[in-house]
Write a structure and sequence with these properties.
This protein is of the alpha/beta class and 269 residues long. The protein has one domain: Rossmann fold. The protein is 42% helix and 22% strand. The strands form 2 sheets. Strands 6-7-8-3-9-10 form a 6-stranded mixed sheet, with helices on both faces. The longest helix is centred in the C-terminal third of the chain and has 16 residues. It is globular. The structure holds adenosine-5'-triphosphate and magnesium ion (MG). The site of magnesium ion has 3 residues, from helix 3. This is ABC-type polar-amino-acid transporter. It is an enzyme of class 7 (translocase). Its EC number is 7.4.2.1.
């Protein structure tokens, strides 16, 4: 893991990252022997995965391999059949207040931005802190404006989502997830619905977040991003994790035929 930090200048955030790892001594997100079926379809097969604090994990794999399902189990948008998922050492509760609290610690950004169409940009970002965290409106407004500035769309605060470009909407979706001050951010193909010229502005926001020390799990086929930012790459196929390694290990020396085949297809596009 430390190898990757050497690619970045050693700034405060990277120092904090390694401190945090030492102190925590246990993964922030852990999946142990997770299995899941959709009816007869076995979509997650004995998934074992750990993500340390400050680590960026990129998940790649062919369509239908279970990447989205795995992400969705982490904040329990999907149930699992067996195994366990721990956040900060705590098992994901089945329901109730405990689940709501743990879910608030996991921010999620989807391919489709899912902003509330009938609310302004600022209202979209303020909503969860006010409703879920009972933050007072002034404080939530200030927090939302800060976050919108961080993702570079503060000038759009009073517009409606439909008035923004896809890239801007996705950056608002990131700000909205950050407003809950999550411990980990999950990104499920956040740039794949965007026009090509808007991909970079979203990847830049994600890169900055990573450098600030955010723990991130990203399903993405943006290989440049994965190489530059990921500490670790996981390759999934048919519901299984077939490979895990550093970006250099995975992209330059894939071990399995499935991974080699997958990489030859995406890299030639
Ligand atoms: N709600 C559901 N009910 C039944 N089957 C589902 C459901 N959601 C996903 N599946 C199936 O589970 C398998 C894994 O789907 P998943 O969406 O996790 O794959 P993925 O790796 O994210 O694919 P993609 O790259 O296309 O997004 C697929 O065969 C899919 O058709
Ligand atoms: Mg998917």
């Amino acid at each position: 893991m430390l190898d990757n930090y050497e690619k970045e200048p050693l700034n405060e955030a990277t120092v904090r990252k390694s401190d945090a790892n030492d102190k925590a001594g246990r993964p922030l997100v852990e999946l142990r022997h997770v299995d899941k079926h959709f009816g007869k379809l076995h979509v997650l097969k004995d998934i074992n995965l750990s993500v340390n604090q400050g680590e960026v994990l990129v998940v790649v794999g062919p369509s239908g391999s279970g990447k989205s399902t795995m992400c969705r189990t982490i904040n329990r948008l999907e149930t699992i059949d067996s195994g366990e998922i721990l956040i900060n050492g705590q098992r994901l509760p089945q329901e109730g207040k405990g689940l709501a609290m743990l879910r608030a610690e996991v921010g999620m950004v989807f391919q489709q931005f899912n902003l509330f169409a009938n609310k302004s940009i600022i209202e979209n970002v303020m909503l969860a802190p006010v409703k879920v965290r009972h933050m007072d409106k002034k404080k939530a407004y200030d927090l939302a404006m800060d976050l919108l500035a961080r993702v570079g769309v503060e000038s759009q605060a009073n517009k409606m989502p439909s008035q923004l470009s896809g890239g801007q909407q996705q950056r608002v979706a990131i700000a909205r997830a950050l407003a809950m001050q999550p411990k980990v951010m999950l990104f499920d193909e956040p740039t794949s619905a965007l026009d090509p010229e808007m991909v970079n502005e979203v990847l830049e926001v994600m890169t900055r977040l990573a450098h600030e020390g955010m723990t991130m799990i990203c399903v993405t086929h943006e290989m440049g991003f994965a190489r530059r930012v990921a500490n670790s790459v996981v390759f999934m196929a048919d519901g299984k994790i077939l490979e895990q390694g550093t970006p250099d290990e995975f992209f330059d020396h894939p071990k399995t035929d499935r991974a080699k085949d997958f990489l030859s297809k995406i890299l030639t596009h």
